[in-house]
């Protein structure tokens, strides 16, 4: 049975940045969150059709993020050394930051966003412009053969039907082959109060516990887990055919850690929901107090996460004047739902602002280093993770 524990209200598509003429037709849906008592999986209640989200206008580009390029390069090197794969498939290859580290002849991509699929095709990688399904994996098995390594970053938690997803992986994975995927960690979200990882693109938020249950029932097993710092705390799951590879201690460690925290208990989610309500009240009060004191506030990072925060808290351009983002496709547009203007960082003088809200709080250190001058001139940062606070 699914039990609802959190209602974040009406929300737009988190990455659908708009032009002014699109405001009137903006799509909204109810963002409510449930916990499945049987599988322990946390999911949003109302799924948004994937075609609305992942299409040729999808703007989130991993190649715009220096830390993520480094992350994918290091991950690729590690996987090459550890597993020596000859055939590699990436699901959700985006602009190719991971796959570009592999040989073109023996690697292929699956990517439903036309803009990015074109980019990896142009780089020389065969790319299936499609969503990852069992039908597609049957087609790939016939056309391209079976895989030693299947990799997916911030993609599997985007897919509604996880049984179909895992069956599709099992279909195409060679014996002793590995399926490696990373997504934000439910445990870190619960610990850090980072409710902003919940939006249309994340129909599921994964615990190792829930994945262990779901993979098992589809003939796969987790044999290793890495805890990563990217995206505010993610897990990298290593899976294989059941019984194929010896299970490492990290699996037991993570299952234990999650159990001790209370991942298997509904009350944990009720406590989290209360924390989210408090976070909203504190953040809105802080911003309103600063505005009534005539302070100027901007935000760095037009993130999917900040779409959740701004819409849940009702934060519009009366509180945050402007957002800067390094992604060209987001610049000149407005944030989903709250319609705060987005500009390039070079288009504003940060010293005109008193406070910067960190839409990309996960890159706090990178941004603080870049914006040293702002701090030296008395500027302050605002974040809501792990608690609403002002710091410099
Ligand atoms: P970032 C994305 O979410 C979307 P978002 C996706 N659904 C997903 O699963 C998660 O990632 C994990 C900009 N920036 O990575 C670049 C600056 O402007 O936190 C990006 O637009 N200045 C696939 O959107 C954004 O911030 C900077 O100095 O929450 C960061 O987005 C830096 C470092 C970044 O993901």
What does this structure look like?
By secondary structure, the protein is of the alpha/beta class. It has helices at 50-53, 66-83, 114-122, 134-144, 162-172, 186-192, 208-216, 249-261, 266-292, 304-313, 364-370, 372-376; strands spanning 2-11, 29-36, 42-44, 88-91, 107-110, 126-128, 147-153, 173-184, 204-205, 220-228, 234-241, 297-300, 322-324, 342-343, 355-358, 380-383, 389-391. Strands 6-5-4-7-8-11-10 form a seven-stranded mixed β-sheet, with helices on both faces. A six-stranded mixed β-sheet has the order 14-13-12-15-16-17, with helices on one face. It starts with a strand and ends with a strand. The chain binds ligand JHZ. Ligand JHZ is lined by residues 60, 64-65, 154, 184, 201, 231, 300-305, 324-327, 360, 362-363, 366-367, 370.
The percentage helix is: 25-40%
The termini sit apart by 45 Å
Strand percentage lies at: 15-25%
Sheet with the most strands?
7 strands, mixed
Strand order, largest beta sheet: 6-5-4-7-8-11-10
- List cofactors, ions and other ligands: ligand JHZ
Give average pLDDT, whole number.
97
User: N-to-C SSE series?
Assistant: EEEHHEEHEHEHEHEHEEHHEHEEEHHEE
Q: What is the radius of gyration computed over CA atoms, rounded to a whole number of angstroms?
A: 21 Å
């Amino acid at each position: 049975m699914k039990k609802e524990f959190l209602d974040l209200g009406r929300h737009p598509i988190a990455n659908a940045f708009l032009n002014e003429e699109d405001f009137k037709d903006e799509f909204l849906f109810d963002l409510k969150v449930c916990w499945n008592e049987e599988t322990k999986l946390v999911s949003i209640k109302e799924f948004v059709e994937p075609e609305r989200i992942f299409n040729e206008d999808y703007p989130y580009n991993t190649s715009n993020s220096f830390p993520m390029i480094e992350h994918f390069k290091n991950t690729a090197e590690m996987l090459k050394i550890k597993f020596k794969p000859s055939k590699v498939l990436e699901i959700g290859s985006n602009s190719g930051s991971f796959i570009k580290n592999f040989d073109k002849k023996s690697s292929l991509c699956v990517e439903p966003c036309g803009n990015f699929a074109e980019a990896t095709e142009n780089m020389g990688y065969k790319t299936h412009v499609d969503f990852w399904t069992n039908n597609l994996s049957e087609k790939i098995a016939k056309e391209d053969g079976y895989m030693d390594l299947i990799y997916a970053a911030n993609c599997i938690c985007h897919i509604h039907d996880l049984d179909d997803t895992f069956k599709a992986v099992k279909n195409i994975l060679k014996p002793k082959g590995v399926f490696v995927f990373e997504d934000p960690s439910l445990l870190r979200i619960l610990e850090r109060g980072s409710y902003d990882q919940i939006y249309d693109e994340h129909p599921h938020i994964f615990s190792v516990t829930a994945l262990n249950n779901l993979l098992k029932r589809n003939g796969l097993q987790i044999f290793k887990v890495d805890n990563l710092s990217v995206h505010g705390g993610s897990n990298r799951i290593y899976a294989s055919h059941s019984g194929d590879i010896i299970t490492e201690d990290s699996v037991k460690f993570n299952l234990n850690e999650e159990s001790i925290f209370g991942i298997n208990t509904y009350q944990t989610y009720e406590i989290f929901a209360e924390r989210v309500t408090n976070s909203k009240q504190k953040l809105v009060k802080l911003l309103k107090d600063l505005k009534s004191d005539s302070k100027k506030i901007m935000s760095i990072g037009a993130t999917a996460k900040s779409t959740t925060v701004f819409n849940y808290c009702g934060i519009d351009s009366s509180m945050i004047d402007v957002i800067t983002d390094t992604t060209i496709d987001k610049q000149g547009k407005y944030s989903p739902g709250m319609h705060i203007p987005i500009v390039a960082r070079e288009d504003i003088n940060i010293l005109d602002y008193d406070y910067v809200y960190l839409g990309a709080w996960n890159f706090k250190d990178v941004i603080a280093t870049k914006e040293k001058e702002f701090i030296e001139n008395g500027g302050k940062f605002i974040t809501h993770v792990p608690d609403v606070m002002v710091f410099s």
